[in-house]
Amino acid sequence: MGNLRPITIGEIDYANAWPLFKGFERHAGDLDYEMIARVPAELNRMLSAGELDVSAISSFSYGQFCKDYVLLPGLSVGSVGRVHSILLFMKEPLAKKKPERVAVTTTSATSVNLLKIIMAMRFECEPEYVPAAPNLQDMLKDADAALLIGDPAITASWNCAGLHVMDLGEVWHEWTGLGMTYAVVAARRSAAAEQGEALRAVYQGLHDSKEELLRHPEPLITRACGLLGGEAEYWRTYFRSLQYDFSGKLQEGLALYFRYAKELQLLYHHVELTFYEEQSPQKVKE
């Protein structure tokens, strides 16, 4: 397509992002690209370092580097209510004992900071947060609670007898009345300027992949059962409960999240949602 090098695309390596990526190859046409699958925290680092041109990243990472990025409209991973895969596992219910020490996953930024916001502003609780590898049993050895996201959270939720589980998407919605966006798709502004034709093709391919797999989710369900286990009906409900279109309610919820993050000094600047619009298949205003 006239580019000097392949455009590099970061793919979140969790089931919740599969609808954006697993049909991409069928819709990429003759695009010269390299797809790199990692956990969100690694993609956050790679995009900010210029090692990727466009990537799904933690929403919080967009907030950190918003001046360097543009958002691809209509593409996100969010929920309005339960998310099923961003879970706080507690030894005691919050109503009985507020946790003093919480082990938090090292694989994502959005969820850790969402937990800090909810704990401080909703429950008036400020525990010590300790980064830890995403293994529930190990995390709870020296902590009162553990935050897991993505596939590790899902599989842990199937075998957590005796623990009390808080779904952060559900708590956020009950508290604010809004949805929450956990991951966005962002491009570096330099890529938008220098590889415009390729970026348009990436955007169209991701958009078409999403539309196809949400209309016909059975391949995702079969893949999830094979790789992660569980029943087909669980995965059918899971993919149905997630939101991928970055609608107004999700944008509003993300803007509130950024505002609260700034109030708690998790971020130090105002965050604008700036969208890539050129030749987009659907026009989403800033």
From TrEMBL:
Q: In which pathway does it act?
A: Quinol/quinone metabolism; menaquinone biosynthesis
Record field: catalytic activity: chorismate = 3-[(1-carboxyvinyl)-oxy]benzoate + H2O
Which family is annotated?
Belongs to the MqnA/MqnD family. MqnA subfamily.
Protein's UniProt name:
Chorismate dehydratase
Quote the SUPFAM superfamilies the UniProt record gives. Answer: Periplasmic binding protein-like II
Gene Ontology biological process terms from the UniProt entry: menaquinone biosynthetic process
Q: Which GO terms describe its molecular function?
A: hydro-lyase activity
Q: Which Pfam families match?
A: VitK2_biosynth (PF02621)
Q: What is the lineage of its organism?
A: Bacteria, Bacillati, Bacillota, Bacilli, Bacillales
Q: Does the keyword Ligase apply?
A: no
Q: What is its EC number?
A: 4.2.1.151
* CDD domains for this protein: PBP2_Sco4506
Q: Which UniProt keywords apply?
A: Lyase, Menaquinone biosynthesis
What this protein is reported to do is described as: Catalyzes the dehydration of chorismate into 3-[(1-carboxyvinyl)oxy]benzoate, a step in the biosynthesis of menaquinone (MK, vitamin K2).
